[in-house]
Amino acid sequence: MRYNPLPSRLFKKNRKRLFDKILNNSMAILNSNDLMPKNADQLMPFVQNSDLYYLSGIDQEETILVLVKKNNICQEFLFIRETSELIKIWEGEKISKEMAKIQSGIKEVAWSKDFNKKLNEIIPGIENIYLNSNDHPRAEVIVESRDERFKKMIQKQYPSHKFKKLSSVLYGLRSVKDPAEIKAIQKACDITNKGVHRVLSKLKPGVFEYEIEAEIIHEFLINKANGFAYEPIIASGENACVLHYNTNNAVCKDGDVVLMDFGAEYANYSSDLTRCFPVNGKFTKRQKEVYNSVLRVMNSAKKLLKPGVFLVDYEKNVGKLMEKELVDLGLISMKEIKSQKETPAYKKYYMHGTSHHLGLDVHDVSDPNKPLSSGMVLTCEPGIYIPEEGLGIRLENDILIGDDKNIDLMESIPIEASEIEQLLNI
Fold this sequence. Notes:
Layout: H1 8-21, E1 26-31, H2 50-56, E2 64-70, E3 73-80, H3 85-91, H4 97-104, E4 108-111, H5 115-122, E5 128-131, H6 146-157, E6 162-165, H7 167-175, H8 179-202, H9 209-222, E7 227-228, E8 233-236, E9 257-262, E10 264-266, E11 269-270, E12 273-278, H10 285-304, H11 311-328, H12 334-339, E13 377-380, E14 383-386, E15 391-394, E16 397-400, E17 407-408, H13 417-424
Parallel strand pairs: 1-5, 3-4, 5-6
Antiparallel strand pairs: 1-2, 2-3, 7-10, 8-9, 9-12, 10-11, 13-16, 14-15, 16-17
């Protein structure tokens, strides 16, 4: 790993919080993600299951975590891939039992091959089994995960037990960040800031979008980031009106604005930023009008992210802010607003939501039935997209919600139009 390991006390604390929530005489079982095939004998880069990492700190394949609460006594068992001198020669160093104990804070560590034997020893007296699954509301599960395969096996093997979704408990815990998690997210934001300044020094007419992407990943890697937290969007001109554009192969032309949506991942924690820069270093009058409209919505929206607020109500209020800006820009009329039915008129130029949770996943998990609370980290990313003008503007920062005052984790990253122009023309 490139990053400095997070302290084991974080993972100990996370497990304790989970133990406090699950029923007595229960156990929770989590599996690592699979190594996914690419082509021929190649594999895709391994990405750990976020839930397992959150509770163990172990970033390696073939890992199993078992948490047992029996007679109000809590036990923790960690199973990791058995290593050998041969594996060391071909694949490099793997986590040893001692290393796993230090990183996770779990005393009982065994090889994965011993899991089934231990499971048979533990399960007598257990009434409920919490199983892990990807229950993110936007998840499109195409490939059966290790957790899903395990679910089928254990339900067949122990049909008399009660099975419960771990996500119903865990997602609420993950949404409120520990100070150590906030520190990791801030680090990811700081590395992202370095990427922004590198772009500012390289952007000019004739540069390809992928050349900008290359400059960003260079800066990320030399600063110990895992890499991009998600597929970057480098969208110039009319490409910026494609919300999830990531082809990144067009030329940045004189007179266009390039929309860049990217973020570094550090210690498995994500950042998420969007900025828009004039390719030639100067916004036109119209580009600046639209840019400042988005910035006003963003600045107001950030203040609406407060403890006790439900995101559904927040989005409605942001919609009202955007509505006014679009009217002032001459893009929609009051007549259209008054005659709108189910779909608000502003959705013609602002199609997506404003905020999502951020953490181990860029679209992080949360309990949708609970309001925002202090310690949550959310993005704030309004945008206006005008295909007929070949112009798309989106601005995005990551916001830590506080009891009395929010903290913008990207406050130091240039965002005012005048500052951006100045930096582009140094």
